[in-house]
């Protein structure tokens, strides 16, 4: 592992997580433990060798640990240590900071975990005041419960017993339905999304997310129009 050889705690932190892919591995583990194959699926640009190297360094630094799941799974998974989970607030702030970039690549593919963390970050509490919604999100073979209660959002892996609506779509479509400009009606008509339950509740939920104002020139939205 390369080092800045600098006594500042910030430099030491960068020694631990500053290598390419390291913080994105942490991002992928914020929603729970993952197998190596799951991490490769979420970080498609990282080769197996690089991913192995970064995981080994994060484990040596006390950020990540390995453990074996009990039978019948018996798979080896990676998870954040308690100290490693302290990076969550830093990554959330990083998301907020990056979302203000006028060069934000809105049309670039986004992974499922990155999308869920982005939704947590870009939620609009003022728009949700007085609302109570329970929405089930189905993204591929993964399920997320999203509950809105009077200006707060709790979104995490799992199922809701009695959701107002169930929205099924891939991560890219959900990105466009929330922080983009695509309407739910268009996505359903194009067979990029399905909704069961109360469609109006689903639409209200999808309208509770916005990209923050750009730090520079207005950036184009997903349809090529100018907007923040």
From TrEMBL:
<dbReference type="InterPro" id="IPR036527">
    <property type="entry name" value="SCP2_sterol-bd_dom_sf"/>
</dbReference>
<dbReference type="InterPro" id="IPR036388">
    <property type="entry name" value="WH-like_DNA-bd_sf"/>
</dbReference>
<dbReference type="InterPro" id="IPR036390">
    <property type="entry name" value="WH_DNA-bd_sf"/>
</dbReference>
<keyword id="KW-0805">Transcription regulation</keyword>
<feature type="domain" description="HTH hxlR-type">
    <location>
        <begin position="8"/>
        <end position="106"/>
    </location>
</feature>
<keyword id="KW-0238">DNA-binding</keyword>
<keyword id="KW-0804">Transcription</keyword>
<protein>
    <submittedName>
        <fullName>Winged helix-turn-helix transcriptional regulator</fullName>
    </submittedName>
</protein>
<dbReference type="Pfam" id="PF01638">
    <property type="entry name" value="HxlR"/>
</dbReference>
<dbReference type="InterPro" id="IPR002577">
    <property type="entry name" value="HTH_HxlR"/>
</dbReference>
